[in-house]
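Fold these two proteins, one after the other.
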Amino acid sequence: MRTRSATVPHYTLPRLTARDLMTNVPVFVEARAPLSQAADVLAALGAHHLPVMQDGKVVGLVTSADLFEALQTAEAGEPVLHAVKGPAIVVAPEATLPQFSVRSL
């Protein structure tokens, strides 16, 4: 018996936009929030990535691996911004998959 895949057919991928993949109500953490708070949010969501915001702008992305590493060497109350590894890659909602794929390389 053959099952249907939940993946998008390859011929539609070039037309897929960032908006198609975006979360309607994104969850994020403020850059000054403690590492422990970011870890709690990720655990509660069962997620592995969390946008980090500062002054209303995305400044980075923190992963569960980043937090685990940071919590090994830092205090739980240290700001989550210290665990962010690199600037955020931000694209317009209308950006197509080929456009935002190239930006993330």
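Now the second one:
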Amino acid sequence: MRIGYYGALREPKSELDAVDEISMGASSIALQGLQQADTQLENAASNIASVSAVSATGGDSVDLSQEMVAMVAAQQQFDANLATLKTEDQIEQRLVDLTG
């Protein structure tokens, strides 16, 4: 027996089961990253869209350059997490082809 990912005692798994467990972990992390990037992108877009409303009312100004940097960073984060998911999918497909 060995200590598993969550600390529970488990019997040793096959190599494919271990790869599948790692793959599911990578997918989960990448999906969380996609959700975070989406939220950041929405927030930055909302702040940029509010510029005309803020300037019309004389309220606090929005730093457009800072919001644009946030949007670019969110887009890059989104792209990186999407690339992780695509790579993980390709690896799984190759494993299926090898074991098929």
